[in-house]
């Protein structure tokens, strides 16, 4: 089956990976961090603001691939500080107030850049 890739901002494409890839009715959203459409860091030192930006980036990737929040079946969050979980969970619960997707949170030593506190990836299935 062929793989299609999607870039929410074709003017600022990442190198070496695609923000979203679709195979059949499955959509895989790469780990999204707290950078805006220009690649600038959002929410320096603020896990809640970073979480909001991660989910904004996921939403843009879903839209580019022809999906939306209702299609998301699994999310995984990677966090540097366990104390920031509440801020992340508040943002997640705002997007999925009831019957949200399966969800995992993994605490890690570091993310790709030292100022990044949160990274979130998603998996979606279209009907």
- Total tally of structural domains: 1
Proportion of strand residues: 25-35%
For this structure, what is the CATH class?
Alpha Beta
Overall geometry: globular
Our count of helices gives 2
Q: Pairing-aware structural class of the strands and helices?
A: alpha+beta
List the uncertain runs. none
For the largest beta-sheet, the strand count, sense and barrel status come to: 6 strands, mixed
Write the CATH architecture name.
Answer: 2-Layer Sandwich
Strand order of the largest sheet: 1-2-3-6-4-5
CATH superfamily: RutC-like
Mean pLDDT: 94
Walk me through what this model shows.
There is one protein chain. With about 130 residues, this protein is α+β, with helices and mostly antiparallel strands. The protein has one domain: RutC-like (60s Ribosomal Protein L30, Chain: A, 2-Layer Sandwich), CATH 3.30.1330. Helix content is about 25%, strand content about 30%. The protein contains two helices and six strands, in the order βββαβαββ. It has helices at about 45-65, 85-95, and strands at about 5, 20-25, 25-30, 70-80, 100-105, 120-125. A six-stranded mixed sheet has the order 1-2-3-6-4-5, with helices on one face. Helix 2 (about 85-95) links the parallel strand 4 and strand 5 (about 100-105). Helix 1 packs parallel to helix 2. The chain is globular and about 40 Å long. The two termini are about 15 Å apart.
